Predict the structure.
Amino acid sequence: MADYQLLIDGELCDSASGQTFETYNPAKNEKIAEIAKGGTEDAVRAIEAARKAFDEGPWPKLSGSERAEKLRAIAQLINDNANELAELESLDSGGTIRKSQLADIPGAAQAFTWFAQMAEERPDKADLPVAVFPQSTNYALYEPLGVCTGIIPWNFPFIMLSWKIAPALAAGNVSIIKPATYTSITALKLAQLITEADLLPPAVLQVIAGPGSTVGEELAANPLVDKVAFTGSTEVGRRIMQLASGTVKPVTLELGGKSANIVLDDADLDQASAAVLWGTFFHGGQVCESGTRALVDKKIYDELVGILADKAGKIQLGDQMDFMTDIGPLVNRIQVETAERYCALGREEVGEPICGGGRPEGLPEGLDVNAYFQPTIFTDVPNSSKIAQEEIFGPVLCVIPFSSDDEAVAIANDSIYGLAGGVQSSNLERAEAVAAKMRTGTVWINDYHMISPDRPFGGYKQSGIGRELGTFGYDVYRQVKHVHVNPETSGRDNHIQYSALSSNI
Ligand code: NAP
Ligand code: MG
């Protein structure tokens, strides 16, 4: 039996093939557990069980407040097990325990609580304007979509699963989740906790770990699935759209980014430098909305660059399980190699970085240096260079000078992505004018990374389709049905429009 099993049709189980895969703590290259390795057969079984649970089971028939009660119970279960979940999340993903305890686990519980509120508060019916002649009453009914699948990445495993499961269940759908292969543990742990607490009817929530190429493809393509929500790379996002198009399923896509954090000449440099460093190096830069392009006004450029280099040198790399560590290992060696490759490219394109640029020295004993990468800053980077255009997903910052607010906006918008961005300034009116011109799904003024379940999140351009969170993130899990009622149940006076076909009928 695998250490962590799949949840299919109300039961924790091994995969049909009996295969497992190993998951590692990247900091020490140490095996943590054996995970059941789902395949296409498991995905199909889960989809069929989900179809039945939606079409015949009790869940979609519950009232919004009954569903809200269950979601709040899940939030409570997460809070009751927060320490264990935070530890597992950090061990498996390399994210710091500080991040898991302060952001990931409570953030996921908050998402369940927010969508519980949505289930209670968002109306299931909305009246439409009454027509006098021909007379009718009209209204819209909001209904769940059905079987919703969620495919999630490794960078924020627990938060991401909450963003997929909570709105789907809140709106009366059933949900199947595939975690990323590198970080499956906490999704399977939550499945186990919910099953043991007997919180949901069978097949309302199912979790299948396994490869994207088998489980993921089935969850996106199977005709019995009604909606796919995906977070991950733009490349796989395109594939998901193709697979979903076979049966014209709606998709929500949260994809890559290369966000611009604009520092205007009137910014407080202490605050702005903190916003730039936090905006880029939080979680080793493995954040889709990271502000990896810092655009800095030439008037303050030299001074700010000096402060950035000085402060970046104080960021502590170490064991992610130590609460004092700022950046842990990257999720795996592949990410380290990617960062390294881009740094080599950056050296060719713009020269030596002002700090970092390689694997760190002097890590505490027992940590594998091959899992770590130093916070790295390239300066005077042309926006057209590859390191400024391509997503690196590691701790690499490009600093780009500009001469006017309009030029800053033009550089910020010169990207295939549009996920997020920042404006740092002491003049809020000026900052908001810049924010209004940025073609991106979120802008933080004098801040960064401030995501909350009650505010919409998502991308412009190739950063995605649709929004998660907020009220919008609830409504995309619902169908709209228009009902037209002619109160005349007999007679023809009200029906002259039939003559649009023929005056003889
Ligand atoms: P990824 O390779 O796109 O994988 C994401 C998920 O898709 C994983 O669960 C993966 O499974 C699965 N998958 C892979 N190939 C698939 C296929 N052909 N069909 C269906 N599913 C498939 O991304 P990642 O490497 O995990 O994450 C890093 C990327 O995600 C970055 O580019 C980042 O920008 C983006 N990201 C975006 C957001 C956002 O909100 N916009 C948030 C986080 C990350 P396996 O793990 O088994 O391969
Ligand atoms: Mg792992």
Summary: The domain at 260-445 is CATH 3.40.309.10 (Aldehyde Dehydrogenase; Chain A, domain 2).
